[in-house]
Amino acid sequence: MAVLVFAEHTNSALKSATLNAVTAAAAIGGDVHLLVAGHNARPAAEAAAKIAGVAKVLLADSATYEHLLAESVAPLVVKLAPGYSHVLATATTFGKNFMPRVAAMLDVAQISEIQSVVSPDTFVRPIYAGNALATVQSKDAIKVITVRGTGFAAAAAEGGSARIETIEAGPVTDLARFVGAELSKSERPELTAARIVISGGRGMQSGDNFHMLDKIADQLGAAVGASRAAVDAGFVPNDYQVGQTGKIVAPELYIAVGISGAIQHLAGMKDSKVIVAINKDEEAPIFQIADYGVVGDLFKLVPELSAELAKVKG
Amino acid sequence: MKVLVAVKRVIDYNVKVRVKADKTGVETANVKMSMNPFDEIAVEEAIRLKEAGIVTEIVAVSLGVQQCQETIRTALAMGADRGIHVLTDAALEPLAVAKLLKALCDKEQPQLVILGKQAIDDDCSQTGQMLAALLGWSQGTFASKVKIADGAADVTREVDGGLETVTLKLPAVVTTDLRLNEPRYASLPNIMKAKKKPIDATSPADLGVDVTPHLTVLKVEEPPKRQGGKKVGSIAELVDKLKNEARVI
Q1: Dihedral in degrees, nearest 10, Cα atoms B95, B96, B100, B105
Q2: ipTM for the complex?
Q3: Whole-prediction pTM value?
């Protein structure tokens, strides 16, 4: 038995979510192989080969995979799948996009966003925005799975020395064409990988006011997130959204500012180790799950927090 | 051009779901049910394409128990032209739904299928992609903008790093994200009119689709409860606790 993990990467480097998926693969058992499909992706394949516990890296390097469209990635994975008991990918917008296509082509179910492995055929996954946990058993010969990163520790990025095997690209399709991307540029850590996250909600009142959170993020080395309300209001771009339908985060410290705590938002952050809430409404549901709540005007409290952090952080 | 929109009946997003005592699922008896919010966005997008003169007919499809007819009626009241109800009491996995939708697409020959990016009950986010795979069509998932012109769809997608735009050959499958549009409310006259719009009934057997589940749900449980609720009096106290008690800064 061997498990194939589709590596998420930028051609030059691996995305951290891949490390969590490797841990899930190791929990299932058997040899762990990583598939790196990309264009000029040898650096990513070399990084993949160093991950502790990886036995082999398959590198499919082709211009076809420059933008990793689902229509071209899925046939490649389908071609490789029969050699594996499980095929895993990250439950990011990337993995979520192509993996169901793989599952349907293989005529098997997909098990979405597993957060733990009970046995090689049984997994736990959240349903209803994480308000319930379902334990599901698969009867399929090949199990197609996406992995929720917050459920698994990151595998060590160093220590392995897997061999890299170059494989042929799959068929080329003209169904879809990449036009362009507008990606947010930030020097801060990625939202889903950050040790500390500070998020703002509707209470921030404007996009400009998010600069207050940026300042604290810089002091703490944190990422900045937002509730759906703040994204819908146009304060910040969509990739800031934390919640059931946005990103799922579980940092060591999550600071919610001006966020009331709708269940859809809690779904994206309630597994954080320590939660701080700053809100003027003391009845706000966010306080029920916060380890430390501060009731008051965020426009007074956030600058105070910044000043206080400056003192203790020197 | 014809558009097919899939609409799912789910527990209303405002309801706090409760896990059943016997751990077989969540309580659905006497619970308010509504159209999956992402599917409302799908219906709205189809209507806007029709209002723009690009789409000529909107077919709303729902699959499941008898009451799914209400969900189809909601879509008809918003502005869909007719409905198809695939009646079954079986629990349908996304793969089975995709196969049933494929059978309907083979019959109806739409140029575009629009679905929500995920249903808020099982949070699977699979059906649209599976349908595209079975049809051999292109897919534009998590769409925040759709433009149809010259036999192609330009779809702007919400991805983890920001936005990405792809051009899809038609026919194609699009799944909706939150920012695509704001769905309208059905007006009372349109609700009345919707009662006269036709809904065809069919079944998995009629469509020749095996809907046997691939997965067995062994149990459904409540997640561990978080012990929260503590408040601190000042920011200075907060920072002190974060540093010396929680040790996270």
Answers
A1: 0
A2: 0.95
A3: 0.95
